Amino acid sequence: MIVTTTPTIEGYEIVEYLGIIAGEAVSGINMFKDLGAGIRNVFGGRSAGYEEEMQNARREVLDELADRAEQLGANAVVGTSLGYETFEGMIMTVASGTAVRIRRAS
Question: Which residues form the signal peptide (predicted)?
Fold first, then answer.
């Protein structure tokens, strides 16, 4: 399954648009990671705990997006967009795009 942020895929043509799809995930950060992030906010630096959680959430929503596209009979997703939001120790992640059927360009 090809999942791309671009509206087209080089070397392929879109033969059918199957609809807008999305994948969502809400992940909690444990209190120790949250405490470490709070300290880094004061003193500066990166929060490995949050970064790892965001990477996991991104993988989850992209996998979910591909699964939903496949259920529609798609073999690609174009125009994919990712969004993140944090709220009270939770990371909300969403990926959306357009499920399409593609074939190699002649």
Answer: none
Span 77-106, average pLDDT:
92
Q: What pLDDT sits at residue 44?
A: 59
Residues 3, 65 contacting (CB under 8 angstroms): yes
- Helix H or strand E encompassing 22: strand 12-28
Q: How far apart are CA 68 and CA 26, in angstroms?
A: 18
Cα–chain center distance at 35: 26
Domains of the chain: 2-104 (3.30.110.70)
Neighbouring residues of 84: CB distance < 8 A, sequence distance ≥ 6: 54, 57, 91, 92, 93
- Alpha-carbon gap, residue 89 to 21, rounded angstroms: 27
Tell me what pLDDT residue 52 has.
81
